[in-house]
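Worked Example 4.2. Consider the chain below.
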Amino acid sequence: MTTGGGTDTGAGRDPAGGAGRGSGANAGGDAVAEVFSALADPTRRRILDALAAHGEATATVLAAELPVSRQAVVKHLGVLDRAGLVAGHREGREARYRVIPERLGVTARWMDRVAAAWDSRLSAIKRLAEGE
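Applying the procedure from the previous section yields the following structure tokens:
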């Protein structure tokens, strides 16, 4: 979360969408793992859905829509922020959060590559099974 002046909370992230951790060949995989870990919790998925519907919202607004406390929402938003899925900025006394769709796009592209590789493998198995 930011400490004031409207500064975006994603300042520590690298331009490629990573959280600034790791480098080399597995850096993208680490980013995908962070997204999957963050999305593993159904409350965090509901928070993302609510933010997508609102555009921006405070933890107070989100807590009013969910069966968890404001403090729990803030903790979940922290996990989502570290995964690069949301960003927050201060507006008065509260922080307003929004979805960052780019990280989901990175994850979707990774899933597409994995799916294509499996499709290719399954096609090869089918050809072998059919005697081609």
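The helical segments are 27-39, 42-54, 59-65, 70-82, 101-129. The chain has one domain: 25-129. Compare this with Example 4.1 before moving on.
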